[in-house]
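Researcher: I'm preparing a figure for a lab meeting and need a structural model of a single chain. I don't have an experimental structure, so a prediction will have to do for now. The sequence is pasted below. Please return the structure as tokens so I can convert it later.
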Amino acid sequence: MQIEVDYCGECQKRQPRKVVAPCSYHQGLGAWIGAIKYQGQLAALPVLCRALVTRIQLLEQQGLITLPQAIVPVPLHPKRLQQRGFNQAWLIAHELSQLLQLPLVSEGLIRQQDTRPQAGLSGAQRRRNLHDAFMLADDFAFQRIALVDDVVTTGTTVSEIARLFEARYVHVQVWCLARAEAPGLLDDLDNE
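Model: Understood. Here is the structure written out token by token.
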């Protein structure tokens, strides 16, 4: 008999943050997500968002998650937003907001430091890079949110932001288009 639980026994000891993703970054979707983020090629965005909504609805039906009160995109620093011309996390959050009919809250969470890009940094370097990079407005009014990003790799960005929300007793789920597995994890699975 299979029992649905939030975490395996080992994970229950650490109580990790819930990350909801419909896809693996390393199993073919990395190129699509990179094209969205770095080249503004948005054709795959609606399909990937619908896949994420399907995953969210399935987990909700199974009682493993509760829908949040609002959707909050990971913000870009204004300088990076000007360079790129768009925030891919906001585009994803906007699509999810429409599909799930949940409010999109893009004010209140601010990226106050123009940090180096996270790609290519080690876990320790990512943590130092993002330390105090974000700020949460005093009047944030929601108790349950979904924090949205394009991909979660080490979880450093979402953990840094979630820490701000959780200090104010705001429950945070993380929604993304893909989850990047630890190096070597898929190699072990492919050899079985």
